[in-house]
Amino acid sequence: MAEQIHIQVCYALPEQQFLRDLTVDAGTTVEQAIALSGVQQAMPGIDLAALQVGIYSKKKTLDTVLREHDRVELYRPLIADPKNARRRRKAKPQT
């Protein structure tokens, strides 16, 4: 029997979140974990090809092999560039 590890897969929208705990075989990749999690069925309409992925806020590739207690995170594209948003706030007159 293959060694098992415990991981999480998460994805969040402003009004809804997905968080699934999984027990998978050691050697499972990020891509395999996403497929096993059922996130595509639970959150219809997400385009996994357009999303970036990471483990604990560090960007990773789909072929990254997972370790015990990793949390796979699916990142939505940014709506606004954070640098431009800071510039707009700084340029705004203070009251």
TrEMBL record:
Pfam families listed in its UniProt record: Ub-RnfH
InterPro entries registered for this protein in UniProt: Mopterin_synth/thiamin_S_b (IPR016155), RnfH (IPR005346), RnfH_sf (IPR037021)
Family label: Belongs to the UPF0125 (RnfH) family.
Protein name: UPF0125 protein H3H37_16335
Organism: Rugamonas brunnea
Species lineage: Bacteria, Pseudomonadati, Pseudomonadota, Betaproteobacteria, Burkholderiales
